[in-house]
Amino acid sequence: MEFKDDSLALHTDAYQINMTETYWHDHMHNRKAVFELYFRKLPFGNGYGMFAGLERIIEYVKGFRFSDSDIEYLRDSIGYEEDFLQYLKSLTFTGTIRSMREGELVFGNEPILQVESTLAEAQLLETALLNIVNYQTLIATKASRIKQVIGKEKALEFGSRRAQEMDAAIWGTRAAFIAGFDSTSNVRAGKKFGIPVSGTHAHSMIQVYKSDYLAMKKYAESCVRRKNKVFIPLVDTYDVLRSGVPAAIKVAKEFKGKVEFLGVRLDGGDMAYLSKETRKMLDQAGFQQTQIVASSDLDEQTILSLKAQGAQIDVWGIGTKLITAFDQPALGAVYKIVAIENEEGEMVDTIKISSNPEKVTTPGMKKVYRIINTLNQKSEGDYITLEDEEPQKEEQLKMFHPTHTFISKYVSNFEARELLTNVFVDGELVYKNPDIFAIQQFALENLNVLWEEYQRTLNPEEYPVDLSQKCWDNKMDIIHEIKAELKTK
Ligand SMILES: Nc1ncnc2c1ncn2[C@@H]1O[C@H](COP(=O)(O)OP(=O)(O)OP(=O)(O)O)[C@@H](O)[C@H]1O
Ligand SMILES: O=P(O)(O)OC[C@H]1O[C@H](OP(=O)(O)OP(=O)(O)O)[C@H](O)[C@@H]1O
Ligand SMILES: O=C(O)c1cccnc1
User: Fold this and answer.
1) How much distance in Å is there from the Cα of 442 to the middle of ligand 3?
2) Nearest-angstrom CA–CA distance, 312 and 245
């Protein structure tokens, strides 16, 4: 039997539905629960992460509903009982989601997103939420890292052909734009998100005409007919300095005033040497404004090296190594329950103990604050509290390392900026995601509060993510309680 692929509700792991069935049978499914989504370790050895994914989460949660064909499929395949299937059919998301905003700086072991809803709903959302955040935040972080090295020069996203499938190309390029990239080569992403689109041409076009000059001339003729008139020929198909660049210059002179000779693209060879020689040739021909675009397996390391060699590159086209998060393919974010309603209707904090201290969860519904020193507008670190705390009302905050507690400092003159914002409240969407340019602007401004020591790509300082005393005490009390209980067994 064939089933229509008409909803995303089954974009989940089977165990989520199995657990939901258990809760439903046991009349636990409508208990209130709180889950928090976070990663433990920053990727790529970077000093900060950049959050992306909320746009798609909003789309997903708004549309969360099991379709008729979903129910038919579950009946036909796993064969859940009919009453449970009818319960699934009736579900929509009725809870509350708080999230960081896209472009926010995020760090290890702090909630990026929080779901407070019925146990069943929170559980059923897990896989998709992690799927979205793990990829988009990873790519935004990689893109921001690459942008750190590129600085003010332009960064073009070229990855679609190498991305892990179509969704990754589209949402990955959006994440890269959030982190400060200037354009995408993916035209659909341009249409869908309003990201500026740019493009040159491939080696194949030169090969088709068997001549740099002839191909570039034909290309220029079509550029003339376009509104933007942009002419950026690729110069390395046969020989950059003997054929590609001279042909580009010749055609540009012939079409002076009719096309905009914005740049030439180099895609390989020794790009330090070739870019310097190309620069000289363009300058001598009077094209001082024409830029040099480079592409070919670039990432932050090759870009840094090319810059150190004095490469004359103005624009960087980056594909594979960005869109596939080449050096670290997973962020490793997790989604953990931190509180559950008991039989008396009270919320009870819950913990997961592990022999690995980093994997012990922090119980209780929490708030995350960025502590900004008002004297220099730089961040002192992030501060995680239980939900009823109000750090802004304190004269002085004690910030201490959550594992090495002797590492501590007192901060006065601070603004405690709350980072989680209401996105859904009781099932209603209450947040409007800003447009993509505003999100990019927000992301770039966020970096201003971070000392440079956290922004360098190599061995950055570790940014403090601390627990409030109350949050830390709560965790320790719960650990001791559980240990005591285990002892008596
Ligand atoms: N001067 C340079 N210093 C450091 N890395 C460079 C320099 N020039 C190019 N690179 C990088 O070296 C790699 C070149 O690899 P390779 O020789 O396989 O490709 P290529 O020269 O582009 O060849 P092709 O065009 O046939 O693919 C690319 O990752 C490129 O970004
Ligand atoms: O190297 P990346 O960072 O992934 O950037 C994208 C690459 O895609 C194109 O090469 P490809 O060989 O696919 O096509 P081409 O024939 O146009 O060179 C382009 O020339 C870049 O080298
Ligand atoms: O426009 C380009 O130059 C481009 C686009 C995708 C991949 N490589 C290059």
Assistant:
1) 28
2) 14
